[in-house]
Design brief:
Alpha-Beta Plaits; homodimer; Molybdenum Cofactor Biosythetic Enzyme, Chain A; Maf protein
């Protein structure tokens, strides 16, 4: 079963609204084991809408058409679908009553303009969920295909998709397979490096997919997704007979991948670097404080975004000015873009804020070089009662990217220290 | 000139990433006066990519194809475009050198996998901007059409579109009218409030557009764009005979709007709140330091993002833990979510970091209430040698939105103090 999504609205093409509806529908279709190969945005123009919908019908079994069901003159989805079905629009009296009641219950009077929302193509049926004045429509086309028309208002659309349309699609498909994904989040290797590291494994998957598809225990595929300063994501997707079989495949593949990727993996699905850090610190009963120069508040900002951070995060000093590095952190006079300065800052903030571990960043975010060191030179350090570790990075990109990469690099250094060093425990 | 956008990537169809690239490109095309009638998402499948691109070429003058230029096996945009052009892919030696240098400058060695990124369809040219290892390609098809291939990584894509592709498109279009926009950025009023405030003005524009279109001095339209914690943007767009005429219209309309909106306007175009703050401080020769509890590094993080911030920003203390508020900022024992505590923090950080002005935030970001005050209660303060001003906010939303709204609210309070109070000057 192959389902296509068409989003209607000139405001989408103009970028005034980002089309998050199609993305959400795509997720729901995948989770229901339904294929979706195309998603198209088209403006409020009858001719182009008709062409796009007809093309979609020609290459897909079903089309979900989202938007253009409002009461104004540019809402023409109903007319275009009736045209494609080769039928007339007819006023649905029950729908008129329903819309009138909605207005009455809000203490308002229905405007005659809203009557257009009660026009339904002959032969179409109405989706039972209807949170707003726009009715969802199930429109059969040519015997074996179907267009679902849903409003563009996200919560109205979602209620109709989850309430009626997904089950209607699954019933039509006669299939029972489910598709599930899991994402391993990594930091520390380039996309191409990761691809090489996993080349044999991916080849093996291709072979076993051919087998397993036969015995229905579930196929698995891998995809990489570069997410900038959030690292590289490795997504495992499986198609299996049911939920339990899918989870079993994901568990196996995750274990196999972790055996290859080792410490590169810092989290799963929504677990970002700062969530990983906060839970590692909590697990070990350790607290942290941070001295930030080049990252200027970004590390504190990210760590504090995690609910429960207050248990493990003491606070920080943004030592943007060199005098502040000296007065608040006890760093000695001298060059500040050095590993020595980073270590001194890390110890300084650890002591003055009374934390178990101190972190520090110092470097050159640009636009100009500093102390003869080029833009992108960044020194980071982690210090505890067991000693300190520091490293120098040479980062690409503009000011913002240098600060962001410094932030995640320092958090990752802390993660490595926490994972590898039981000596750091209290 | 009709330009179509095709976004490549199965992760887009599966909704794992929302396709914001197409929306951004749509905005840029509209601002450049180029039409865009279709935007399509398609997965990493050669056959379907080819069909979608061929269809796009058949109905549009130019196609911007976004994504699939990485080094891995599922990055097949180069192959598909070569197929459509009816040519071979050829290794571009200059590109190999360029990519190798990128790796070397980061202290890494290029993997052989990355060689695929140096493969270019014969007859295609390379976009001069190339912030990453993926090169942008300009691929002529059949004499009068063109496909632009750009990476899916947003900042790489944006650099190529604004640097090369928009001008290339405008040159191809042969149009002479120019479309220019200017955005006034506001903080402090709701979208409906702003719409009411400007209702008469917008009506007046409609009338004068009808006139001026006739005498070609340039038309002007307004659009509102709610940007969450970045405030509300009022975008003026004009279509005029040439650059000078367009700028003249924008200047006039900006002056008229500022007369109505007054102090609500904090910046123009890319000038966000922190840029406005840094330039106001620099103008007055004042320095600032910040004590952050509920905002936990966000204020420092935003201010430090501005090049030149080091001239006016001394640094900050992230006093997440109450003991830190006392030891580093000299706040007395007692409740911390109060205006008194915010003022004490602001004075504390001002004194200990030696700044002219101290800022402070303290509040309840959740998930739980604190000191009997509900989630969303935030106290902010600005202190100087002339005294202090503090206020209590009751903010909606989740932890992240509360922290973000606190951040911009405090920056805006500082802006108001700086604009209204010459007494604060040195």
């Amino acid at each position: 079963m192959n389902v296509e999504v068409v989003a209607i609205g000139s405001e989408l093409l103009l970028g005034q609204i980002v089309d998050t509806n199609s993305s959400w529908i795509g997720q729901e279709l995948a989770a229901a084991g339904l294929d979706s190969y195309h998603q198209t945005k088209v403006g409020d123009n009858a001719g182009r809408m008709k062409s796009v919908l007809e093309l979609a019908l020609s290459r897909s079994d079903a089309v979900i058409c989202c938007g253009g069901l409002g009461p104004t003159h540019d809402d023409i989805t109903r007319e275009v679908i009736a045209d494609i079905m080769g039928v007339e629009l007819k006023l649905d009296k029950q729908l008129v009553t329903k819309i009138e009641e909605m207005f009455t219950s809000r203490g308002r009077v229905m405007s005659p303009t809203n009557l257009s929302q009660a026009m339904v193509p002959v032969g179409a049926s109405i989706v039972s969920e209807q949170p707003g004045t726009a009715a969802g429509l199930i429109c059969p086309v040519g015997g074996d295909k179907v267009i679902y028309a849903v409003p563009g208002v996200p919560y109205e659309m979602k209620e109709m998709i989850t309430g009626t349309i997904l089950s209607d699609l699954i019933a039509r498909s006669g299939e029972s397979a489910v598709i599930r994904s899991r994402t391993l989040r990594t930091w520390g290797m380039s996309e191409s490096g990761l691809a090489e590291l996993l080349a044999d494994y991916i080849e093996g998957l291709d072979v076993s997919n051919a087998d397993e598809a036969a015995n229905k225990t579930g196929t698995a595929t891998l995809a990489f997704n570069a997410s900038g300063v959030e690292g590289l994501k490795v997504r495992i997707t499986t198609k299996a007979a049911d939920e339990a079989a899918a989870i079993a495949v994901l568990d196996t593949k995750e274990a196999e991948l972790r055996a290859i990727l080792g410490d590169l993996v810092f989290g799963v699905d929504g677990e970002n670097m700062e969530v990983a850090i906060v839970s590692l610190l909590a697990e070990k009963g350790l607290t942290v404080a941070v001295a930030e120069s080049v990252t200027g508040g970004y590390i504190a900002g990210r760590v504090c975004a995690v609910p429960g951070a207050s248990e493990v995060f003491r606070g920080g000093v943004v030592a943007y000015n060199n005098q502040v590095k000296q007065s608040l952190l006890g760093v000695e006079d001298g060059p500040v873009v050095t590993e020595e300065a980073a270590v001194a800052m890390a110890y300084g903030v650890r002591d003055s804020l009374g934390a178990d571990i101190g972190l520090a960043s110092t470097g050159v975010a640009g636009p100009e070089e500093m102390e003869g060191r080029p833009v992108g030179t960044v020194c980071i350090a982690v210090a505890s009662s067991d000693g300190a570790i520091a490293t120098t990075l040479q980062l690409p990109g503009d000011r913002e990217r240098i600060r962001q990469f410094s932030t995640i690099s320092l958090l990752n250094l802390l993660r490595q220290v926490l994972r590898q060093a039981p000596v750091l425990e209290n």
